[in-house]
Amino acid sequence: MQPALADIPASERQFLLDLYDSTGGDNWHRNDHWGDAEGTECSWIGVTCDMDKEHVVELNLISNNLVGSLPQTLNNLQHLREVSIGDNQLSGSIPPLQGLTSLSSFKAYHNDLSGPIPSLQGLVNLKTFHAGSNKLTGHIPSLQGLDSLESIEVSNNQLSGPIPPLEGLTALQGFSAINNKLSGEIPPLQGLDNIQQLQLSRNQLTGTIPSLQAITKTALFRT
């Protein structure tokens, strides 16, 4: 019996084709089935669809020799839950993430990405944002309203400005921004009952270390 064909929107298929073209898909370590006929998209290596094969929900192309820039239309994949594109040679900017309200994990570490971290506002299901070891600049965006956020890792970039307020991030377990150009004071840590790692060394931070008395778990605190 033939497996059911995928029925993803044309905009989602087009993003996948654009991703292949803009990141040297012919030279990926694995590119099984990429570019095959309409209806096959859910069988392309690294692509996961929902159970009904109506939407792409995951991209996993870690360590796959992606070279080039990401299409700026990533948010065409409006049902996307996970993006894993770390350990490649991607350059250019991180695409806008607005509207990806199902996104829970974005991992783009160890690339050559530049420009700012895009707005994370409205990503109410985001748990993990890892973009360390790139060439990102600008400020760390606001994290307010990201009640599900557990881990943010942006070490070894060129980020500047203050650390955004962490108030209300009750699920936060790890925040790592080592080796950037961050300045200003470390924000209050009250209410961060689940924090286990706060790593901020090799920056330009000033002021006093905030009180840790309200934190119930011992934090690995590196300033």
Short description:
This protein is mostly beta strands.
Question: Could you characterize what this model shows?
Answer:
The strands form 3 sheets. This protein has a 9-stranded mixed sheet with strand order 1-2-4-6-8-10-12-14-16, with no helix packed on it. Strands 7-9-11-13-15 form a 5-stranded parallel sheet, with no helix packed on it. The protein has one helix at 10-22, and strands at 47-49, 56-60, 67-69, 82-84, 89-91, 105-107, 114-115, 128-130, 135-138, 151-153, 158-161, 174-176, 181-184, 197-199, 204-205, 220-222. Strand 1 and strand 2 (56-60) form a beta hairpin. The chain is elongated. The model has no long low-confidence stretch (mean pLDDT 93). The termini are far apart. It has 1 helix and 16 strands. It is mostly beta strands and 223 residues long.
List keywords for this structure.
single chain; 223 residues; mainly beta; nine-stranded mixed β-sheet; 16 strands; 6% helix
Count of beta strands: 16
Summing up helix and strand content along with how strands pair, one would put the structural category as mainly beta
Distance N terminus to C terminus?
60 Å
Principal-axis shape equals elongated
Biggest β-sheet: strands ordered side by side in the sheet:
1-2-4-6-8-10-12-14-16
- Counted by DSSP, the helix tally is 1
| Helix residue percentage | under 10%
Model regions low in confidence, pLDDT < 50 over at least 5 residues: none
How much of the residues is beta strand, in percent? 15-25%
Radius of gyration: 19 Å
Biggest beta sheet summary: 9 strands, mixed
What is the average per-residue confidence, as pLDDT, rounded to a whole number? 93
H/E series: HEEEEEEEEEEEEEEEE
